[in-house]
Structure formats: structure tokens, C-alpha cells
Amino acid sequence: MTARPPAHRGEDRATRRPLRTALLIGATTAVAALTAMFVIPDANAAASTLGAAAAQSGRYFGTAIAAGKLGDSAYTTIAAREFNMVTPENEMKIDATEPQRGQFSFGNADQIYNWATQRGMKVRGHTLAWHSQQPGWMQSLSGSTLRQAMIDHINGVMAHYKGKLAYWDVVNEAFNEDGSRRQSNLQGTGNDWIEVAFRTARAADPSVKLCYNDYNIENWSYAKTQGVYNMIRDFKSRGVPIDCVGLQTHFTGGSSLPGNFQTTLSSFAALGVDVALTEVDVTNASTSQYAGLTQACMNVSRCVGITVWGVRDSDSWRSSESPLLFNGSGQAKAAYSSVLNALNAAGPGPSPSASSSSPAPSTSSSPSASPTPSTGGASKIVGSQSGRCIDVPNSSHNNGTRVQLYDCHGLTNQQWTYTASRQLQVYGSMCLDAAGSGNGSAVQIYSCNGQTNQQWNVNSNGTITGVQSGRCIDVWSTANGAQVQIYDCSGQANQQFRLAAL
Ligand code: XIL
Fold first, then answer.
1. Ligand 1 geometric centre to CA of 214 (Å)
2. Is the pLDDT higher at 102 or at 436?
């Protein structure tokens, strides 16, 4: 008798070889006979809990847990069965963990930590620096005293959980709806407070992933989303330690699932960070919105998991909107099935190789550099997919201005001269420049300096690759204003660019 090989959940059925199909058909008679006696486990069977279903694609499915409810067995039964990641709903916040300055208190947080880890669940820390739920003593501080208090708080709490947590929401909700910084007492200590928080956190516990977390950043065309995106891009380009962005995904209180949610997730991910849906709830638990938000995560390999903000509707901070997956009696709602089905249908998920730190890009064919275009003078750089040109916004001459796609018009801010030293010069003295070498690094203009991040190979396969990074010039949209980055060469159309006569 031959054992049936375990099929990988992410296996694409369409790619299975005919030979294997033939073998399976051939075996059908024998299998049919055997099933009369044994139940043969089907490796492709759908998982029956949220955590197990998410785990099939390497993701997690979590919930917020309140310490005060751990004595409620109806609550803990569901939570222990369904989830494999836990976020303490309030117990790791600043007021809970440092009620008096310099006096830390971890009783309730540890209760949740122990409950979760004893059941094999992981824990997400939430949150170290936030304008809200500050203890009274912190609310009244400002300036350098508050800055130091924030640093001391991060160090104190992270020391207690060093090596124990999967993620930390280092900074929570630091932006206004218009994309500017929220005017909190922390912001008043100086615009660098967020990066100081992240640098402090990395030094305190290098083992935990450090996240920025916010709400209303799910719609890609919303100003707040762009504000946060620009900060993450800036952090990545300057080496500020950040590993992930948490999108709270509160589709309650008037918000709903935007059609471009997946674009938002993949755009953040392209900067070289993981993304996660961290506090999901949906007004009246709309099945289509729950399915859609789950599917968006499944479609983005660096979307590492989903957390709902509570177990039953009666546990929700917005219980009047009945926004969760279980009703007050603990029964699964229709939205539960829509989420479970989307998780079960997912292909392979977050892969470690998706990391931004992988040194060498892989290309499907190895390109060779082609000679300088015969015009000899300036060229336009045209994206094959968009038909649009690489353009310096507003004809800026400022170092660090990120280039974009724009309708070709042939003016000087779209005129590039490919030199013998492989620079792409604009305005005579400035060069196309990679702001970093990782996936998602911005492509910008900078004063020519002869370094390898300003050298480009114009390849015969239609790509332009950075000499320093080996990665391809890439855009994630064809629209006017689409920003240009470098990314692992994928052979796809959004990485096809040609130098053409003006
Ligand atoms: C909420 C909790 O659910 C409530 O119990 C508490 O009273 C207020 O905070 N964004 C966040 C979460 O990051 O910490 C908030 O949690 C919900 C909004």
C-alpha cells in the first residue's frame, strides 16, 4: 500500500502534472476499496478553525483578549479554539504598565501572556508610545522630560518581555487624517520622537518585530495613508529600524472596506516591511467586507496575519455595531464562514524569502547591458506598461526628490542622458539615484557623486537595473504620479523601461 503524499496547501491544482493525475486515477479503485475500512486523511481538507486555516499559508489569526474575561469559560473556550495570536486589549498600554513613573506593573499583561503562551499562541505587544491611555503623570509632562520618560517606558516594558513577543506596536496612531503628524504631547517633544522610539525599541529587544500601527490607513488614496507611507519609506531609506505596519482595519464608526485595500497592503509591503491587519471589526459583520479584507491579506505575501478586535460582539469596544465573528451567545456568525473560507482557499503565504534583506535579486533571464541609445544626447525613459515617462516632479532640483511616472512631454525634467559611466543624468549635474538597495527603495534625483547607487544598466531584456542593488526599476501603478522604486526583477511589465529619442 502506498501512502498518499501530503499535498502542500498552497499547491496550484492547475500546475499538477498529468502523470500524477493518471497515477491518482489509476489508484482510485484501490483507494475506493480502502475508504470502506479507513478514513484516509485528506491533506487538502479545509481547516475548521481560524487559526488553523490561517496557518496553512504561514499566517496567524488573532484576537484581542481582556484579562478581566479570562474567568469566563464561554469566552476562553472560543478564544483558545479559534485563535493563535493574542493582543492584550488594554493591559500592555502605558497607563497599565507604568501607572506611576518608574513603577512598572505587569500583573494583568502577564496573565494574558501566560494564558496565551500556555496554549501555544503568540503574543503581540500593544502599545509602547501613544497619545492615548497615558497615565496621569505622563499626560502632564512635556519636552525633554517627556522624551526621556518615553524612552524609559519603552526600555522598562521591553525588558520585561524581552525575547517573548512576536511583535510590538512601538508607536500607535501618530497621524492626523490629513496626513500630518498628530499634535500630541509626544509630538511636542520633536518630530523625531517616532524614530527615537523605534531605535530605542530595537536596542531593547532585537528579537521582536517592531511595528507602526494606525487606523484609517486602509484606503490607498487617503491622505493619512500617504502620510504614514511616506514616513515608513523615509525610515527604510535612512535605516531607522522598522519591520512592520499594522493597519487597524476598524471598518466601524463609519468606515468601510475600500476597493484599493490590497493596493495599500502591497504598497507598504513593497517598502520592505511586513503588514498585518491588527484590530479588525466591521459594522454588522458584513460578510462581503470580512471576506474582502481577508482576501486582500491572502493576496499579499507579506501580509502576515489578521487580528479581530475581540471575541464576541458583547466583548467589542463597539458592541452596538455587532462587528465581530461570534455573537453574544458565542455562536459563529455568517462572517465567520466567509473569513474561514477565504483563509482555506489561500495559496502559499508569507515567505521568509520575501525579506527585503535578501542580497541578490533573482531574474528569470540574465540580462545583458545594451549600448547607449544611438541618439547620443538626452532620452526619455518610457515605461512600456504605462506609456508614461520617468519625470522629476515639479521640475524640482532638490536632492532626494523621488521620481515618478508622468505623461511624456519632453521637457528637461524628463530628459535623461545615459553616460559612459552608466549614470542617468538630468539637468546636467544631477543623477538618477537609488535611496537604498533593498526592495522598495526610492528612486530619486541626487547630485552626481560617482557612486554605484547612481549607476544603472540598461538591459537588452527591457529592464534597467541598479548596479549597487542588482534590482530593477519598478512601479506599482501605471498612473500619473506613480512613484518609482527598485525591486527584485520579476520579468513583469511594470519593470519594462526603454530609453527613447525625445
Ligand atoms: C480600545 C479598547 O478596545 C478599549 O477597551 C479601550 O477603552 C480603548 O481602546 N485603537 C487601538 C486600540 O489601538 O488600543 C483601541 O482599543 C481601539 C482603537
1. 11
2. 102
Find out whether the beta carbon of 488 lies less than 6 Å from any atom of ligand 1.
no
Distance, CA of 87 to CA of 262 (rounded, Å):
23
Q: State if residue 279 touches ligand 1 by the CB under 6 angstroms criterion.
A: yes
Give the CA count within 13 Å in the CB-facing half-sphere of 377: 7
- For residue range 238-273, list pLDDT tens digits in order: 999 999 999 999 999 999 999 999 999 999 999 999
Q: Name the β-bridge partners of 287.
A: none
Q: How far is the CA of 317 from the centre of ligand 1 (A)?
A: 7
- Please work out whether the CB of residue 255 comes within 6 Å of at least one atom of ligand 1: no
Q: In which region does residue 79 sit, left (phi positive, over 0), alpha (psi from -120 to 50) or beta (all else)?
A: alpha
The number of the ligand 1 atom at minimal distance from the alpha carbon of 64 is 3
Catalytic residue flag (residue 11) = no
Rounded to an integer, what distance in angstroms lies between the CA atom of residue 219 and that of residue 320?
24
Probe ligand 1: pick from 112, 314, 317, max atoms within 8 Å of CB?
Answer: 317
CA of 275 to the centre of ligand 1 (A): 20
pTM recorded for the entire structure: 0.66
What is the structure's pLDDT at 438? 87
Distance CA 184, CA 133 (A): 12
Known catalytic membership, residue 173: yes
Which whole number is the average pLDDT over 26-45? 43
CA separation for the pair 440, 237 (Å, rounded) = 9
Amino acid at 179: G
Round to the nearest angstrom and report the end-to-end CA distance of the chain.
Answer: 70
Residues paired with 458 in a beta bridge: 464
Question: Is any atom of ligand 1 closer than 6 Å to the C-beta of 90?
Answer: yes
pLDDT score recorded for residue 348: 60
**448-477, pLDDT tens digit by residue?**
888 889 999 888 778 999 988 889 999 988
pLDDT at 490 over 80: yes
State the average pLDDT for the chain: 87
What does each C-alpha distance from 132 to 78, 95, 101 come to in angstroms? 30, 9, 16
Q: Which of 65, 86, 89 best tests ligand 1's pocket when mutated (most atoms within 8 Å of CB)? A: 89
CA of 302 to the centre of ligand 1 (A): 25
Tell me which residue has its CA closest to atom 15 in ligand 1. 89
CB of residue 63 inside a 6 A radius of ligand 1: no
Q: What is the mean pLDDT of residues 325-329?
A: 98
Residue 13: pLDDT over 80: no
Q: Is the pLDDT of residue 27 over 60?
A: no
Q: How far apart are CA 144 and CA 272, in angstroms?
A: 32
Q: Tell which atom from ligand 1 comes closest to the C-alpha of 213.
A: 13
pLDDT per residue over 173-216, tens digit each?
Answer: 999 999 999 999 999 999 999 999 999 999 999 999 999 999 99
In Å, the largest CA–CA distance within the chain is: 80
Alpha helices in 308-404 (DSSP H): 334-344
Buried b (16+ CB within 10 A) or exposed e, 348-378: ebbeeebebeeeebebeeebeeeeebeeeeb
